[in-house]
Design goal:
Number of domains: 2
Number of helices: 9
Mean pLDDT: 77
Radius of gyration: 22 Å
Largest sheet: 6 strands, mixed
CATH class of the largest domain: Alpha Beta
Shape: elongated
Strand order of the largest sheet: 3-2-1-4-5-6
Number of strands: 11
Strand content: 15-25%
CATH architecture of the largest domain: 2-Layer Sandwich
CATH topology of the largest domain: Endonuclease, Chain A
Amino acid sequence: MSDPIAEILAPLLLGANDSIKVLDMDGRGIFRFHDSFMELVDRRVPRRCLLASPAAVPQLPDDNAAPSQVYSDAGWEVRFSPAVPTISCIIIDDSELLLADLTKDIVSEGIPVMRLTSDSKALGGILDHFDFLWENSSHVEVVYEDLLRSSITGQARQIVVASKKFWDSQIKSLATNPERLANVDPRRFEELIAELLIRDGLEVELTPPSRDGGRDILAWAETVAGRHLYLVECKRFDVERPVGVELVRAFYGVIEAEKATAGLFVTTSRFTRGVQAFHDSVRNRLGLADYKDLCAWFKRTIDA
């Protein structure tokens, strides 16, 4: 199994002793296993699957029969939830959680971003909510499952599997349709820029979302002149919202304070004239990349 998702999933299924719970709220059945995966599951282990109701997600097929039939044929107990979904996950023995991407913004070609965690807070919150939805699947009155987000800690949101194939598909898609940047989650945008930097040969570290210190990414380059640190700030702004000089000046202050070699400010929007004027005086220490530069970066990456 060369698929990185399969490499994580198969041992989890084989190791299940007490229960397997699937919350497949995507409607496309992203956790539907291949026939070989179904055979891995000990049929003595209780297996429950909660699917999104077509009434909750209008774009689903009328009966959502495809994913439900797969589970039912393999002996799973299946129920439908009328709650509007936000996540999909697999819970093994109430102790390990395989979580699909929360934002759902760049899942394509059947390659979801997955996270594996044993975080007790994440597990407890999702287990409680799974049981609530399961027991009330016929009449639950949840408008939106956003309460689940508060149960997912930063640790659980760290990417465990984001394969080269996944990023290849995303970068290629954005090179062809860069307007999709408007729908990318800000944190995912930072991850995207980090991936581009890695492909350009830099060593990269993403900073925690809540304590980034005025820079989203740390990037290092080893050269004959030494090891150089570059700070990167990412702003996923709407096209109508340009980046003003105040933000850029503040970022340059961080570059100076940390004595970094230089910095890069990246935005999905554009920079004001004030930024351009400021940049003229610090161009050897600060790089700017706007929407047009990102488009060129995507194309250069896929052509490499």
